[in-house]
Input
Amino acid sequence: MLKKYKQFLREFDKKINKYFESQSEYLCCKEGCSGCCEIGDYPFTQLEMMYLMEGFRSLPQNLQIEVRNNLLNIKKSRVSTHLYYKCPFLINNRCSVYEHRGITCRTFGLAYLVDKNTVKIPECVHEGLCYSKVSDNGMLTVEPVKENLSLLEIVNGKLAKKYKLEFGMSRSLIDWFP
Ligand code: SF4
Ligand code: SF4
Output
């Protein structure tokens, strides 16, 4: 299943890269900017987790220890399952498992249509980052990506069907760790 998932990701990334190109004038993403990994609940399906952990296992020992410590600290300090947290894989403002990151991670920064009347705008719009110059009171003044890029849509979408992928259940990243 991981082999098929990697093929799926290659095709998915190509599509997403085109969206990033078409929206580039509204985006502020650059190396070292990690706001989207600093606070969130990071939904991951079972299949994405398997791939993420493949990336984790290929990390040098010291980074694995850092990630493990981050996980433990989040687990200790998280008093409610509804609380958002910093992704444990974020080390020195960089994703330590970038090639293995999840589907949602790959869409960070893009504004997209959720349905005919609803647009999902990245949270960093409030920090003066993505789309901040082309939004007015939470409304975009330009066309967003015209595809629903939410995780649920993607794992049930055409491309996932083409590769006959079974993603399994989705949970907040931290809840995959006992
Ligand atoms: S896996 Fe990487 S890209 Fe995804 S939230 Fe964590 S640090 Fe960010
Ligand atoms: S989506 Fe926003 S917070 Fe994330 S890297 Fe891009 S500019 Fe930074």
Observations:
- The chain has one domain: 2-166.
